[in-house]
Amino acid sequence: MNKMVKKLHVKDNDIVVPGQLLAEGMSYIPSGKAIRDGESITSTVVGKISNKGHVVKVVPIFEKYAPKQGDKIIGKVVSMNNYGWTLDIGVPVKCELDLREGSQSFIETGKMSQFFAVGDLVFVEIIGNRNGTFKVSAKDRLYRKLPSGHLINVDSGLIPRIIGKQGSMINTLKDESGCNVVIGQNGYVYVHCDNTENVFKVQEAIKLIESNTKSSGLTEKVKKMLGGKK
Amino acid sequence: MAGKSDTPLVVKGKRIDGRKANELRKMTAEVGIIPQADGSARFTMGETVAIAGVYGPKEVLPKHQTKDDRALIRVYYSMLPFSTTDRCRPGPSRRSKEISKVMIDALEAAVITEKYPATAIEIHVQILNANAGTRTAAINAASLALANAGIEMRDLVCAVAAGKADDTVLLDLFQPEDNFGQADLPIAVMPNRNEITLVQMDGDLSSKEFDESMKLVMDSAMEIYEVQKNALIGKKENKK
Fold first, then answer.
1. Chain B residues lying within 8 Å of A20, measured CB to CB
2. N or C: which end of chain B has fewer CB within 10 A?
3. Dist. CA A91–CA A78, nearest whole Å
4. Residue A133 belongs to a domain
5. Is the CB of residue A78 less than 8 Å away from at least one CB of chain B?
6. pTM
């Protein structure tokens, strides 16, 4: 073997595109959305570089939600059979809520739709993946059926911004608008309020968060926006 | 490819529109132009304009077409009625079906389909204005839209045509050269990996001329890649 090549072609926080050469040499390790191609490491998506030591990581900028265990999500019941419910969670994977995971209490035969009927929104947690089908649970008291309200679809990458540091943003949204807001990590945001106008205020506030992801003091801005119209 | 032009197409190494033989048309690119799509892009090459929208990965319908180990890529190419000088009949035609098929082959090589098993990725490409090289512009737009949708790809796909007119090998033919030329050779490449994903030929080229056209395309692929890269990163300096 000829002399070892070892070269890093990118810096931290650089934005890279698919196919771009990131590093050469076997001493670097690809992580995130980077792949090894022979001796070199290339990116597979448009993303940001995060480089720690020998690990070259690509964090994607444009991303669709990928379900994983432990995620708290909002699903919509699309069908039911004798063994449970099937949910739509906004991505093309099967998602099932088993009968025994539906509730802590005993579910009698023929009374399934009293718990969740087709068309209902359910706040659930992903408990596992069996052969590509995601299993969810609504057993914990935290998880429940969401009564009729508004469903807003946002980019799942923005969910941390909508929640804020220690929930500062979500608390602002709830307190200032007087609405009940439930956020699913799959990008579904549920808003319920007796006064429909307040729902639109929350919708606009979320739009504001979407367009100002990088600016600081966003919570104050949202507070001003919601408070100003009261 | 029929008939002869009244005026010479190449005079003293210069073409009708003032380009040299190895010069590309002016290119511009933009991503995120369709809000409803998961990813979208516009790519212009001279007067040819193509827009592409990517929907997916999503459920495969009809279900029996599902590939359990990889994603199914579907391309719908169409030319809008006002894109050509004579009105172009809307809807699928023999030509659009063929181009959709070759585009699937050109893009499937770049997309890491194993990462999205049992799903479909739909790419819709519309030609807003046709001035030769629509399939290459469509491939460029589609690969940008795929990157914009966050789909994992080995490399961006860059496509451009080479050809022959007035016995000269030319790069990136435009309408008169395409109509009255002797050959047209659209090629799609992955520039970083030096791999070819599409080669088609219409007309006749000697083997020497073929090698020469191939070299022209390979040399200019990186130029297209830079335009695509700038569009994705958001730089506005899309000169040439």
1. 192, 229
2. C
3. 13
4. yes
5. no
6. 0.81
